[in-house]
Amino acid sequence: MLSDLLKTKHILFGINAKNKKNLFLELSAKSEQLNKLIDQKTLFEKIIMREKLGNTSISDGIAMPSALLDNIEKTFVLFSILSKPVDYGAADKKDVDLVCLVVSPSSSKSKHLYILSNFSRLLKNKNIAYKIRGCENSDSLFAVLLNFNLSSAA
Questions:
Q1: Of 23, 83, 120, 133, which cross-links 14 as Cys (Cβ 3.0–4.6 Å)?
Q2: Residue 111 within a domain
Q3: Is 79 inside a domain boundary?
Q4: In terms of residue numbers, what domain contains 52?
């Protein structure tokens, strides 16, 4: 269930990243602040390693960087609306302004992929992305996401 994965305090507005690497540094730092089991440096390195396997943009200004970490017990999700879009090197050439970071325990690879695919399906819904971009705070964004069932998002 979405409310088990994402909390309102894990929804960030106004991250001001100069580029993709800077975005990953910001996300890693915020993740460490919100989850004491996450080490900023380790998470940053894991995100970069994953990104080298293939760009994690899912199109239309949305990206889903991810990582697997040994020392966490459950999946951690951080959702961000950037203050201005960044060049993410996306295949569709669109700069990214919505970012959903998914960090899971290394022992939960299949669950990690399941969560990524469901969030991807949810965020690719143009109506949902449009509503998210219209949100002004964490509570309104959380409400938009809760109105949709992750496993049935089209």
A1: 83
A2: yes
A3: yes
A4: 2-143
Q: pLDDT tens digits, residue range 101-143?
A: 999 999 999 999 999 998 898 899 889 999 999 998 999 998 8
CATH number at residue 64: 3.40.930.10
C-alpha dist (Å) from residue 21 to 28, 37, 71, 118: 11, 22, 23, 25
Q: How far is residue 62's CA from residue 86's CA, in Å, rounded to a whole number?
A: 11
Q: State how many domains the chain has.
A: 1
Residue 151 domain flag: no
DSSP type of residue 5: H
10 Å Cβ neighbour count for 3? Answer: 10
The pTM (predicted TM-score) of the whole model is: 0.91
CA-CA distances (angstroms) from residue 59 to 20, 84, 90, 142, 154? Answer: 15, 16, 7, 21, 15
**Looking at the domain assignment, is residue 148 inside a domain?**
no
Rg of the chain in Å (alpha carbons): 14
**Residues 33/100, Cβ–Cβ less than 8 Å:** no
